[in-house]
Amino acid sequence: VQLVESGGGLVQAGGSLRLSCGASGSTFRMNAAAWFRQGPGKERELVAAISRADNTYYADSVKGRFAISRVDADTTLYLQMNNLKPEDTAMYYCAARSAIGGSRDEYEYWGRGTQVTVSS
């Protein structure tokens, strides 16, 4: 299973982007999935996660601005990002697993990332 992200780009502060993630070449069902990001000189951090039961988690830094969702029989994952800030600049990665249970930090499959750059 290969996850492929899209939707990144350059946006001004206050703008919006929607990231998408799909499984290439399969109908892999994302029973649990998440978005991570890694900014320049920073460690990778969990941004948002969604469980099989549609419970969601958001990092404090993005609460109220980002929204994670899963559609198309759980084969596509989105991250709607609003009111973007320069500190949101990072490579964003999609992650997913077929297992229903487990930690929101642990996933089987990862995408290669899509770059988000927010200018001030």
Regarding quaternary structure, how should these chains be classified? single chain
> What characterizes the major β-sheet?
7 strands, mixed
Q: What is the string of SSEs from the N terminus onward?
A: EEEEEEEEEEE
What is the CA-CA span between the terminal residues? Answer: 37 Å
Helix content percent band: under 10%
Number of strands: 11
The radius of gyration is 13 Å
> In DSSP terms, counting alpha (H) and pi (I) runs of 4 or more, how many helices?
0
Strand content: over 45%
State the shape: globular
Overall mean pLDDT stands at 94
Verbal overview:
The chain is mainly beta and 120 residues long. The protein has no helices and 11 strands. The strands form 2 sheets. Strands 2, 4, 5, 6, 9, 10 and 11 form a 7-stranded mixed sheet that branches. It has a 4-stranded antiparallel sheet with strand order 1-3-8-7, with no helix packed on it. The N and C termini lie far apart (37 Å). The relative contact order is 0.33.
